[in-house]
Design a protein that fits this description.
Blueprint: H1 13-18, H2 20-37, H3 42-52, E1 61-68, E2 71-78, H4 93-105, E3 109-111, E4 115-121, E5 130-140, H5 142-174, H6 179-221, H7 227-248, H8 250-254, E6 263-266, H9 267-284, E7 288-292, E8 299-302, H10 304-320, E9 327-334, E10 338-345, H11 379-389, E11 393-397, E12 405-412, E13 442-446, H12 450-462, E14 466-470, H13 473-483, E15 487-491, H14 499-510, E16 516-521, H15 526-534, E17 539-542, H16 547-556
Parallel strand pairs: 7-9, 13-14, 13-15, 15-16, 16-17
Antiparallel strand pairs: 1-2, 1-5, 3-4, 4-5, 6-8, 9-10, 10-12, 11-12
Helix pairs in contact: 2-3, 2-5, 5-6, 6-7, 6-12, 9-10, 10-11, 13-14
């Protein structure tokens, strides 16, 4: 049984700063997996792994095995190499043996105590498509092993898609008239993609839940000067959470089926939020950033987070295709009946024949061996889809290659008497205070992510509740009867038995003393919410939960009876 970590109280902003490398690491992992998902052959995946894996792990040697058909291809590199090499004499024998073990068993492998080498298979345990092994004298923790698992799961899904695509191509050649089989293959590939994206969202939301709960605790205790730093950590963590949501929503965005959380939005706030996100990248490249905002509000009817995503995409695009020392400008204005957001740069420009296709998915202008900013070419296409969902339009203009470019977003302008942010008694940008927790309740909190469980438990105790933390189903069942909770907050993705199964076991164990149950999960698909309702959960909350929503749900939760199976 693993050692239990008891919650400790965070009280300084340095702990929030300590979370920043983890956020950056998650960003790099998300970028690596996303780019691999758009590649069309295993060798391209290997090249990208060689370029990017050093951003995620410190290692002395790295060995990669890729199964292509019935052949296993081996690649390796050392810490100072520019990429993976196929030269057999450069392969580290012990690391290769560890990778072979992981690929043969479909399970993780490690050597040394503490672990100086760790390996994980690429893909499912039934038929791994390869393995990665990293070795370093500094050693690795269980957290590194779990993170390697998440990375390898995403890369395995990309390799599985490549393998399925290759098989599909062969099927078309051998059976050109068998379109039904082709549709079945495509549907299976799409289902695999949905499963992978749901899994990725779940795993990324777990650390975000711990970060945001800790930030909320720190904000309650922090002196005035520290609140600005804490607010930065919170905003960036929430932005990463929106990126995860955006990854899961790609298909709905492109088909116009995404749900917008519309309200009266000041386009100046949108610009400021986007600038905060994009400014660090510009500073790293030595670029000058200029923002021009009007004195009066520029109100539109829209989803502020999605509009900020559009503006961030345009700013990041401007920075990516501009060299060091150039300027990037962001301007907000208003016409007679339209709101305007415009981004200008002094970058490589856009060729005339590209202006008509620059907003298509997977299109990247000016990408050459000398100028390859990375990415999948989704940013501008997603921006156009989001703007059009708001009833607006986006256009690009350029005087040609080498003369910079301009992107202009126009949206319907709301009347002058539309309510502006900050007029409800809150200052602009000031977070609403958490709602009153009401009467104290006895809460059983079950989550196998210790950081997330401990930080949430401390937050709930700070609100006056009595909380018992269990890090797994066995511990929860052992302590439930004696604790007699009023409410049980159950993580759905638990080991041994999931949250749905645990709820049924708790019902058998507690009988008439069964508490009200709240599902807490990184999964947010319709079928997940439906299953929670069927199992008798009073609510289904998605990680990281909104603090006010969590507190009100706990206060209002009532015991429910699961639906009888049909």
């Amino acid at each position: 049984m693993p050692l239990l970590c008891f919650p400790t109280r965070c009280s300084t902003s340095s702990e929030a700063v300590d979370k920043l490398p983890e956020i950056s690491r998650l960003n790099f992992a998300l970028e690596l997996v996303s780019e691999c998902a758009g590649l069309i052959d295993a060798d391209a995946v290997a090249r990208l792994i060689g370029e990017r894996l050093r951003w995620l792990f410190d290692f002395d040697t790295c060995v990669l095995a890729l199964r292509v058909g019935d052949v296993v291809r081996w690649r390796s590199m050392r810490s100072g190499d520019h990429g993976l090499s196929a030269a057999p004499e450069e392969h580290d024998c012990s690391s290769r043996a560890l990778a072979e073990s992981a690929m043969a068993t479909g399970s993780p492998a490690a050597s040394g105590q503490p672990m100086i080498a760790i390996a994980y298979p690429l893909g499912g345990p039934e038929r791994p498509l390869g393995a990665i092994c990293i070795a370093g004298t500094a050693g690795y923790s269980n957290r590194d092993l779990r993170f390697l698992h998440h990375v390898c799961s995403g890369l395995g899904a990309a390799l599985l898609r490549i393998e399925q695509t290759d098989r599909l191509s062969v099927a078309y050649v051998l059976a050109a008239n068998s379109d039904r089989a082709a549709r079945d293959e495509a549907r299976a590939a799409n289902d695999a993609k949905d499963i992978f994206l749901a899994m990725l969202g779940h795993e990324l939301r777990n650390p975000l839940a711990a970060i945001l709960a800790t930030v909320e605790l720190m904000r309650r205790d922090a002196p005035g000067p520290e609140t600005a730093r804490i607010a930065i950590v919170e905003r960036q963590a929430r932005q990463l959470n929106r990126l995860v949501d955006g990854l899961l929503d790609v298909s709905r965005v492109t088909t116009g089926k995404i749900n917008l959380l519309r309200s009266a939005v000041d386009l100046r706030d949108v610009a400021s939020s986007a600038a905060e996100t994009a400014r660090p990248r510009m500073l790293a490249k030595g670029q000058a950033f200029m923002m021009e905002l009007p004195d009066l509000p520029v109100m539109v009817d829209g989803d502020e987070a999605r509009l900020a995503q559009v503006a961030s995409n345009l700013l990041n695009n401007a920075s990516a295709y501009s060299s060091q020392g150039t300027r990037v400008q962001l301007r907000v204005g208003a016409g007679a009946d339209e709101a305007i957001l415009e981004v200008r740069d002094e970058g490589i420009g856009i060729a005339a024949d590209m202006l008509g296709t620059i907003f298509e998915m997977f299109v990247q202008g000016g990408r050459t061996k000398e100028w390859a900013p990375g990415g999948l070419g989704l940013g501008l296409g997603l921006s156009r889809a989001l703007v059009e969902l708001h009833g607006g339009s986006v256009s690009a203009s350029s005087d040609g290659e080498g003369h910079g470019s301009a992107f202009r977003v126009t949206l319907p302008l709301l009347p002058r008497d539309a309510s502006a942010p900050g007029q409800d008694g809150l200052k602009r940008g000031e977070p609403a205070s958490s709602s009153s927790p009401g009467s104290p309740r006895r809460i059983l909190l079950v989550d196998d992510n210790a950081d997330a469980a401990d930080s949430m438990a401390e937050l709930l105790r700070d609100c006056g509740h009595e909380v018992l933390v269990a890090y797994g189903p066995v511990e929860a069942l052992a302590s439930a009867t004696a604790f007699a909770p009023d409410v049980a907050v159950l993580d759905i993705g638990l080991p041994i038995m999931d949250g749905y199964e645990l709820s049924q076991e708790l019902r058998k164990c507690l009988g008439s003393g069964m508490p009200a149950m709240i599902a807490l999960s990184g999964y947010d698909q319709t079928r997940d919410r439906e299953r929670s309702a069927e199992c008798g959960f009073a609510a289904h909350l998605v990680k990281p939960p909104d603090i006010d929503e969590l507190l009100s749900t706990i206060q209002d939760a009532q015991r429910t009876v699961p639906n009888s199976p049909k």
